[in-house]
Amino acid sequence: MIRAVVIDVDDTLCLTEAVCFELENEVLARIGREPMSRAVHLSTWGQPLLRAMRERSPGVDLDAFTAAYHVVLQEYVMGGRLDVVAQENLEALDELAAAGRSVMLLTSRTEAEVRHLLAPDHALAGRLAAVYHADNTRFRKPDARAFDELLAATRLLPHQCLYVGDSPGDAQAAKGAGLRFVACLQSGIRQRTDFDLHQVDAFIDTFPETVDAVARLEQ
């Protein structure tokens, strides 16, 4: 049985790349920097934010960026512009839990970047067994050791877990750790061919298809 379904946040549980592009350019504007191009944002999408910003805005003062980022982040969250989890995705999480599976998040975001998702009044409250992020794991994707803390804490075997993500780096990390991997293509940023160098157990076009994909893989 697949006992744990572990889910990426960005462009998997919620569609975020386009909004993050706008958000980060707003931050750059507030600290007097020129905007980045969409092309460079897409080419670095999936990297930890501060690492990516070195390419997105070469020479940027990362301390100044970070300070302004957290202000703008809260504005976007409070305005309902970022990290909106669709109702059908919430229902999919409930179906997974009803089938006896633990539902967890594993993301390269920092704790500060996911804090609002963990709030007791958030729609995800009560739906997640655990959340793993850059501040409670020692390694980041695509390193397979990104799953070390999750596997140790749950005492599950890798083959009992499945990861749902949107990038080749997600596939590399999950398969390297021995988990099954489902590639979510809902964002439209990546195609099946982007995963040609990686083993993928199933492709889904929308996140709610996770429920059926997990059931099929368990057979």
TrEMBL record:
It comes from the Bacteria. SUPFAM superfamilies: HAD-like (SSF56784). InterPro entries: HAD-like_hydrolase_sf (IPR050155), HAD-like_sf (IPR036412), HAD_2 (IPR041492), HAD_sf (IPR023214), PGP-like_dom2 (IPR023198). GO terms for biological process: DNA repair. One of its GO terms (molecular function) is phosphoglycolate phosphatase activity. This is Phosphoglycolate phosphatase. It comes from Nonomuraea polychroma.
